[in-house]
Amino acid sequence: MITPDNTTAQTELITASHKRSRDWGVDTGVVNPSLVLSESAFKLSRERNQRLISIAVPFVKLLHEFVADSGFIILLTDEKGYILEIAGHQKTLDEIRSYNIIPGACMGEKSIGTNAISIALDKNIAVQLTGKEHYAEIFHNWSCSAAPVHDEKGNILGCLNISGYIDKVYPHILGLIVASVKAIEFQLKSSYSEMRQKEAYRFVSQILNTLEFGVLGTDVSGTVKRTNNITSRLFRLPVEQIENKNLGDFVPEWPKLFAQVRNNEVILDEEVQVSRFGVRETLSLSAYPLTDGEGNINGSVVTLRDMKRVYKMVNKYTGMQARYNFDDLIGESDEMKRIIEYCRSISDSPSTVLIQGESGTGKEVLAQSIHNFSSRRDNGFVALNCGAIPETLIESELFGYTEGAFTSAKKGGKPGKFELANGGTLFLDEIGEMPPDMQVKLLRALQEKAITRVGGDKLIPVDVRIIAATNKNLLEEIKKGKFRQDLYYRLSVIPVYIPPLRKRREDIPMLINFFLNLKSVKLRKQLPDMDNRLFKKLVYHNWPGNVRELENFIEKYVNLNGKIGWSDEIMNPDAFRESAGIEDDAAEKKTHISGSDISTDMENKEVSSLSELEKTAIIHAVKVYNRNMTRVAKALGISRNALYQKIKKFELDI
User: Kind of pairing, strands 267-276 and 279-291?
Assistant: First the structure.
């Protein structure tokens, strides 16, 4: 610090500054500062220096109260010497205003020559100038004390100055300025720390609020001190109504769990119940003890996850998602179109659906399509084959179990299919195979919309849409005493029947074409040509295994590059006739229509497209039955509407 006692050093600084002032061309008789900010520039300067102004101005006012009666003025400048604030004795203020020393005026060397402010900013020191130590004659009766103000990193933000007539100067004025500057700098550092703390708080809050699960911190008594927005959503309360409340007010199991945490134990994935406004939610809670430097427990960090989201993630990564849509149902028969349209219309209903049909007709594909067309599409589609699970395990598979329910039970227990499907769809395949005692428990779960895990006593509410499927005649099973009548009516609120492939033969050519292309891509094989005779036998085969059997045959056909043996059962005329269940006369008629006598031109061709084969078969059938369209449709195994659609499609002049 340069003070009046450091006369040699101060004289050298002042001499050098006077020389620079002359070199700048500043006249000693100058009255006004040559550099003054415009109104807009001054406004921008104040905005840029708002932090300094907000902290320093209270100290400027305090200094004003301290020295106001002595005729002093106080100036606050920015880092370049431009005046930001002026305060002081009114008479003195009026006098310096006549010299245009006003807010926005520059007190630098280039503007008005050597002064305390210019030296303090240039040399980064606290300094006092008196009388002719100033360059401009207007200040020769003045004494000025100035010190630079630094931010928390040591950078100069501005300067604080006290000026007054020489005869009014106190010996301690410079010390007063230095003390004031130190106080300002301390406040700047404190505000910086506070600002950083607020930034850190906002940063942490933003991070916490981007998490997809609830997070909260508690003190040693279990009182919530901090939480995030997800916790607010889970508890259905604003954050401010959760913080400073004991977590036990929201989670009844918390006191018991927190006792373990205070024993320095970690709680992982404990299922807890939260009930708000009549809505009960199941959450997964984990808690971790917080310790001080000496190992004492002083709180905890708790995470909360909505079990629906947990199950959704489990379903996503375990394949419990519906893949098929209505567009994946291949068929142009009237019956399939009616089924698809009907199922679209009931997709969003919460009512149970019972899909009946022979094996291989596509019951699960239809069930997945219904799910994906519903508002539940974003939640899980969980399937359980009731005929593939031992009777002893089906209950735990459906309802889950608690820890210790039986010898091999996993620690923490395990959720069942109902819980995994919560918010989504549970597909119960082969429902006709479900044991009678399980039928009772299933009926209760459907009626109460809640389940109890094996070995537990806690009632867990579930929101599940049930789609069941069977290849059995459940009414016959009821007569035999193998299926409960009350469960049947509970399941068949919306019944759907998928006819076998033999009753919708018009879908077979489309299915053949679809599977040929699909398997060629899947097996990375060239699309094989299909012999006319084989195609016709495929169309008129009864397909006891339905679509699944046809798909498997086409996969074999593609694998063998179309070189399938005529000794194959499906190629054997006798086996074909027997499996079709048709009489000899009818067989001869159908063989005549679809076999070797279609046309000489067609027989000479080794391969034709599927569309060409359909077209030829229709033309030939029309000739055979003398344009009796009812008999033509029946012989071709399609409906009259489908026949007319194909005639229109192929533009046949019949």
Answer: antiparallel
